[in-house]
Amino acid sequence: PGHVQLPSPQNVTLLSKDFDMILAWTPGEGSPPDVTYTVRCMSQERMDKWIKVPHCKNIHRTSCNLTCVLPNFFVKVQARVKAVSGRFQSPWVESQFKEYHLDVELAPPVLNVNVKKNLIHANASFPMATCVESLSWMYDLNLWEAGSEDKKQYERNFRKNTVTIDTTALKGNYCLSARSSIQSIDFKYSEFSQPLCVLLNHKG
After folding, report:
1. Which residues pair with 16 in a beta bridge?
2. Cα(53)–Cα(59) distance, rounded to whole angstroms?
3. 79 and 41 in contact (C-beta within 8 Å)?
4. Among 11, 21, 103, 111, which is most exposed with the fewest C-beta within 10 angstroms?
C-alpha cells in the first residue's frame, strides 16, 4: 500500500545483430528522466540462476550487449531488465529465449584486396567480439567482370584465410564481393559486401 512502482520497460527483445547478441527495450510510459536500467541473464543450463551483468547495471541507455556474458554459444539464453529511479524500481521484464549459434545474424565481412602483378589476394575480416572468434566462421567470395552477371564463386573459405586468384587471363575492370557464413542446422549467410572493383592487366 502506498508503494509507487516505476513503469516497466517495454518491448523487451533479445536480438541478434551483426554477430552480437543484444537485449533492447524502450522506456515504460511515464518513466522519470533519471531512470536507469539493470540487466541480468540466464542460460538454459541453469534455469534457477540469473547472472549479473556488471557493464549493464544502472545504465541510461536502452540496450545491453550480452555477447560474451555467457560462455556457451550452443545453449538458449534469456535476459531480463528492470527500471530503477531513486528507491523505486519496476518489476523485471523477461525476453524470449535465443541461442547465439542458431540465431546469430551475420553482417557482411570487410573485404581486403591486394592486387599483385598477375594475382589477386583477397581475405575477409569480421567485425566480431573476441569471445566468438573460435566459432567456424567462413566466407564466400565472388569475382566477376564489371557489367557481367557471370560470377565465379570461391566458397567456404575460413575467416582470415586468403584466397589467391590468378588474373593472367583476365583483362579489364573486375569486381569482388564477399558474404559471411556459418553452418548451424544448415548454412546461414549474410548479405554480400559492397563490390570492390579493380583494373586488371591494364597497360599504360
Report:
1. 21
2. 11
3. yes
4. 11
d(CA 93, CA 111): 40
Q: In angstroms, what CA-CA distances link 96 with 11, 14, 15, 64, 80?
A: 11, 7, 9, 15, 9
**Contact criterion met (CB below 8 Å) for 106 and 23:** no
Structure letter (DSSP) for residue 54: G
C-alpha cell recorded at residue 10:
517495454
Distance between CA atoms of residues 153 and 147, nearest Å: 16
Residue type at 142 in one-letter notation: N
10-99 and 110-200 agree in CATH topology: yes
Cell of 83: 527500471
Question: What predicted TM-score, i.e. pTM, was given to this entire model?
Answer: 0.87
Cα distances (Å, whole numbers) of residue 55 to 20, 64, 96, 184 = 15, 8, 21, 29
Q: Is the separation of the CB atoms in 28 and 6 below 8 Å?
A: yes
Nearest of 99, 47, 107, 96 to residue 72 by alpha carbon: 99
Q: Which CATH class is domain 110-200?
A: mainly beta
- Rounded to the nearest 5 percent, the helix, strand and coil shares of the chain are 5, 50, 50
* Single-letter code of the amino acid located at 85: S
Distance CA 155, CA 176 (A): 13
Span 84-134, pLDDT tens digits = 999 999 999 999 999 999 999 999 999 999 999 899 999 999 989 999 999
**What CATH class does 10-99 carry?**
mainly beta
